[in-house]
Amino acid sequence: MSAQPDHDVPTPQAASAPTAAAHLLARIRAGRRADTWGPAFEQDWARALEDARHSYSLAPLHDVVRTWQGRLAAAPAVEAFLASGMDDSDGVDLADALGGGHRR
Questions:
Q1: Domain ranges, ordered by start, for the chain
Q2: pTM of the shown model
Q3: Which tens digit of pLDDT belongs to each residue from 17-47?
Q4: Residues 6+ apart with CB under 8 A from 21
């Protein structure tokens, strides 16, 4: 008999570092979208904190961190695309593309 399962077990995503949210907020505040993205992140974070208090789970906080990490990572590509003058009328909302569920 083998101790190995005969099916693939998905590995859980690594949890964000405890300081990930603070680092993200610092990056957001240093960026050129700080006036709009800073308050949006803080609103998402406050909502996630409230959800975490009620659910006794850190998952809402990790979701916010992952969503905003994706937004920050995608921003340069989005800016380059918009600056190229290409037609973006068939675009997809970033929140839908990232699947975060947290909207500004």
A1: 57-84
A2: 0.68
A3: 779 999 999 999 999 999 999 999 999 999 9
A4: 45, 61, 64, 65
**Cα–Cα nearest to 62, from 101, 89, 31, 93:** 101
Residue 47 to residue 51: CA distance in whole angstroms:
6
Q: How far apart are CA 67 and CA 72, in angstroms?
A: 9
What's the rounded Cα separation, in Å, for the pair 100 and 71? 10
Q: What is the DSSP secondary structure assignment for residue 9, as one 8-state letter?
A: P
Tell the burial category of 28 from Cβ atoms under 10 Å away from its Cβ (0-12, 13-18, 19+): buried
7, 11, 64, 98 from 14: Cα distances, Å: 21, 9, 14, 18
Q: What is the largest CA-CA distance in the chain?
A: 61
- Percentage of the chain beyond pLDDT 70 is 78
